[in-house]
Amino acid sequence: VTFFPAMLSLPAGSSATFFCNISMENDSELEYSLNWYKETNHSQGQKIAGITHNDLQWKTEKYLVTNHTGVFRMEILNLHQCDSGSYYCGLITFKPNNVIESSRSHLVVTAAPENTNPTDEPEMEEGNPLDHIKPVILSILLLAGLAVLLIFAYITVIHRRGGMIPWGSHAVLRGQEKPTMVPVPIVDYGVLEFQVDQHAHVPQETWLVRHTEYATIIFPEEKPTTLE
């Protein structure tokens, strides 16, 4: 009984294939079964598969054994790093009863390679900054356009309404250069005192009486004022 290849080193995710070859005289008349074992750290072998001489295939999600008439193809599917170890096959015969083990083969499962494409990296590096800058530029343009529209709308509304512009200490309507001059009379009050002339020919009885006459005089004067 031989088991080969003696050494395999494969990445995780792939499949490992071993072959167990049986060489016997008159093997077509001999009843036997074949077991597949795994050893880890020189521990006792653990059976992982078993097939008889009449079976053509034995399969699980992890292991596949195919009988090619004396040559058995043994596969480990979807390798993981825990699948690393030593493997061998054991032949069990009946009449006469006998157990024959093959030599050990070693399997080393390495880490899966990273799926990177070096030719794509420069394109990604060049494309990433543009992807970040484009939204920023678009936002700035939108804000600038919105500001221009708001200013234009404000000027249009003020122009249509006539608006108010400052003039001196007053606010006047847009389109008027100066406030309207409206004459408004003002009133100043004064007192005039009249006394009786002593040398006037007035009856004597009136000399002893002194009195004051008051008069109000209105002087018109123009004063600028607004429409208010």
From TrEMBL:
PROSITE patterns: IG_LIKE
Keyword Phosphoprotein carried by entry: no
Protein origin, superkingdom: Eukaryota
Gene3D superfamilies: Immunoglobulins
Transmembrane spans: 136-157
UniProt GO BP: negative regulation of immune response; positive regulation of T cell apoptotic process
GO cellular component assignments: external side of plasma membrane
Residue intervals of the Ig-like domain: 1-89
Keywords attached to this entry: Membrane, Transmembrane, Transmembrane helix
Database matches in PANTHER family: PROGRAMMED CELL DEATH PROTEIN 1 (PTHR15264:SF2)
Full protein name: PDCD1 protein
Species: Semnornis frantzii
Name of the gene encoding the protein in the UniProt record: Pdcd1
